[in-house]
Amino acid sequence: MWDDNRASVDLIGFKRYAEVVARLVLNDRLLPLTIGIYGEWGSGKSTVMWLAEQRLVKEQGVVCTTFNGWMYQGYDETKAALMTKIIETLKAKRGLTSKALDKADELLKKVNWFRLTAMGLRHLVMPLAASHVTGMPPELIVPSAGDIGSIVTTTEDSPSAIQTIEGFPAQFRELLEAAGVKTLVVFVDDLDRCLPVVVVDVLEAIKLFLSVEGTAFVIGADKNTIKQAVAIRYPQGQDVEAVSKIYLEKIVQVPVHLHALGEAEAETYLNLLFAQLHQTSSEFELLAEVATANRTRSPLRVALDFAAIKSSLGDKLKPEYVRDLGLVARIAPIICRHERGNPRQLKRFLNTLLLREQLAAAHGLEVDVQVLSKLMILEYYHTDPHYRQLFEWQLAGGGMARELATLEVMARATTQDVAPDEVPVEGRQAGLAAGVTEGWLKNDDVRRWLRIDPSLGSKNLEPYFFVARERLAKYGFEASDLSRDVREILSLLLSDDGVERERGKVLALKLTDTEAEALFSTACGRIAQVSDPSAYIAVLCDIAEQKSVLIPLLIGGLPQVPDDVLPTSAPNRVRTLGIMHPAYESSVVSFLKGLANSTNPMIRKAAGAALAAGRGEG
Prior knowledge:
The protein is mainly α. The chain folds into 5 domains: 1-93 and 181-259, Rossmann fold, CATH 3.40.50; 104-166; 260-339; 365-467, no CATH class; 484-614, Serine Threonine Protein Phosphatase 5, Tetratricopeptide repeat (Alpha Horseshoe). It is 62% helix and 5% strand. It is built from 31 helices and 5 strands. Strands 2-3-4-1-5 form a 5-stranded parallel β-sheet, with helices on both faces. Helix 8 links the parallel strand 3 (183-189) and strand 4.
């Protein structure tokens, strides 16, 4: 499987964007400069900025640093955090003179003054008002004197607000000169994850304090999200869209829009991912170089197909990689189209595919990854009514769906739509009503899906639906084979009464592994429906701690819970499962990295803290 972090190798052909950014930054005539790297979530913004940074750090006199606003969200005043990060980066530069260090310390005092001003509003004025309204003693709401004193003592001689603001840019420029910095490049990543107030604070800090001669800021964000943040922070009675657009254009001089991957680019990307999985590091790096060269020669074609891979690796080409190359050739165009060429979503599709393959192996089930991937395409993109209908057919047929076999034959027999009165005899013999047949064959995407190899009509599909149980529960498919005892335990676990939940846990731990898995396949799909998700997840984790075979089902079910429902305690509880059961550590880490991209800032923080705790940080 693959993590959700930015790539350290150019897998998507975006190095060209990084080179453009580097050239702009190194053009002294353009500085100060702010560049916007625009693209939706998962489009490769972080990768482009990292590649640009690797190019720029080789230049003499260039200093680079990266700021992630969402990491400080709720913990520090954002403007102050950004300025502190930049100044501390300059202080860490080797060979800094005492004059430069003094200037840096002087600026840090001013930054602390900014921080104190913001804290005074947030932690003194507002809490005192809250004390008046609620009747709570001020000492329970207002921060201790020591908390603020650490800042106050460094700002005893602070000038007036106007003097501080007006003088900061000039002093900042003096610091750059004293430090021997020709160009300072600040990469601002994940800005679109932040709350609107944080987004605007970062943009204003860049514009008001830090945009001086010799500086360049590279901002990676979803442009629409930034515009929405501006509109929320500064609501206008007039055209909000126009106001937000003008505001953003005043901050960002050069917009760089990342394109979505086309089908050929998606196939190259997935082939490289599987190379990373199956081949050695040196072989993977060789194939990445081949892909880069081929992109230059033929930018609209698959840059790394089987012929290029075979030519490059020869006898070193592993059989499992050959298998997955065939898989990619079949599914890449389809998932690329449905996922709008988003690299992260493509990777997540493959991660789910491999997770289910591993889950099947853990249960001693034999599954064909080609069959698994074909079913996942139907599940992801045609849930209702097609995937649901297929589930019901195989359930009634003991795993076999003879109706699907008929539809596959019919789809291969014609490339045209099939009218209700043209249903072949075999369709009627299989019990397919004209409306059902029409529903499958008149949908272009579904008809193409029916033609994809391998044919599924003669396959036992039960193992494949078994490993997809967490999604089945999400769709409301009930597990009809739960025994009476298991149903009673499920009822206890779903109770609002803590005593009953505890009784359900005790009884669940007495079940056989097979019975417990049947229980969890349904229980994990009910998280979003209970009144107290935190308590419910806690009891599920308690059970999984003692029955580790249930951990994959829990990890598979939690990502389906909406971000606004998932409790902040969940990441740490799951982290504990990985520590107690190292066999599932990689799956736990992958799950937590996925949560680190949550739209809920509290979940992101909790996931980040859980990951850091696992690494022994903090």
